[in-house]
Task: structure prediction
Amino acid sequence: MGIRTWCDAWSVRRARAVVFVAAAIGLLGRMLIAANTSGPADVRIFQSFAKAVTVYGPVRIYEQPLPGLPVYNHPPLAGWMLLGLNELAELGIPFGTLIRSPASIADFFCTLIVFEIVRRRRSLRTAVACGIGVALSPVLIATSGYHGNTDAVAIVFALAAAYLLADRRSPLAAGVAAALSISVKFIPVVVIPALFVVALRAGRPVLVRFTAGFAGLVAIVWGPALVTVPENLNENVLEYTGGGYRLWGLVRFADVLGLPESFIAFMRGEGHFLFVLICVAVGVWLAWVRPGQLPGVVAVTMGLLLLLSTASGLQYLTWAAAAMFVIGFWEGVAYNCLLGWVAVLGYQGRSAVRWSETVLQLGAAGWFVLAVCLVRGVRGILAAPPDGPPSSPDAEPAAVTASRTSHPFGSAVN
Result:
């Protein structure tokens, strides 16, 4: 019996077990890296942030100058996380290991979520391959296990929100997950309108429950800071445009082409919000015409945000790593292999924010690969039937999986 036939004969339960084991192996590998490496400068910066949060609190931290440290641009939930991690560090657990644990754990759950998303739209063997791809992604291993930061946590909550809303028909939980995604890092804000569009199209009861979950959690997490330090929160978090490095994407290309500094300044300033609006508009449009493909819409929107980003950072590659496997297996492999190379070489350099010429060239090639993957993702979403996948298929006969369309977003059959 060939591997393909063997995979087709699997039950969903057996496939889940395989993906779970892969996720556990991926988590173990990440934690070993976190426990045995010092990590980039962000590890020390986060440790300083944690100490400052302990002194000033997760709310008042936004109004503190914090000399010698970059802008504290993290949403309120990150402050509470740092407060807890600092308490654990005082018990003797190395902070460098602790700060990389949330992202590594997030990748574990992201592996399972991507599997569940893909199995409703493609064959079971493809879903298993995509789940394993997330677990073993060199981009995610490097950015979560070595770098840390909170990007992976934000992404897993964004994908979970789409999965809960479109596939599990759990709007209240989806609203909570959506709020959590922007409460740990603000970048998934570009997918929030698309989530609301799908909730709206599903009917008033769904919209009300989704809104209740989202608004309730936002009020709890963001409310104290919005009431106490609104201007500082807005300046540090909501209007943050990233560092001034020119290592990736549009800004990098503009610099190489020798475009005027005034134009580059516009791209990084007011133009930055234009790019964000483009991402939101694309997500809303796709969600409106194909609400059943919401996980793919979220994946495309987050990938587009990275494509148009005017900020540079190796950890930002996380935004599209799992998302590309939602779009398709080969898209995920292409992106994660090439950009994984960028991440590994970048972290081996003198600094994560000083890329060698080789890394810059690989990054430019990765940008074009990402663009191609996004085009294929949009085409896949538009080619899929408007109806969503089954809400809870527990098993798939081999004949069903074998008859699935080969398209990345083929229709699900119950």
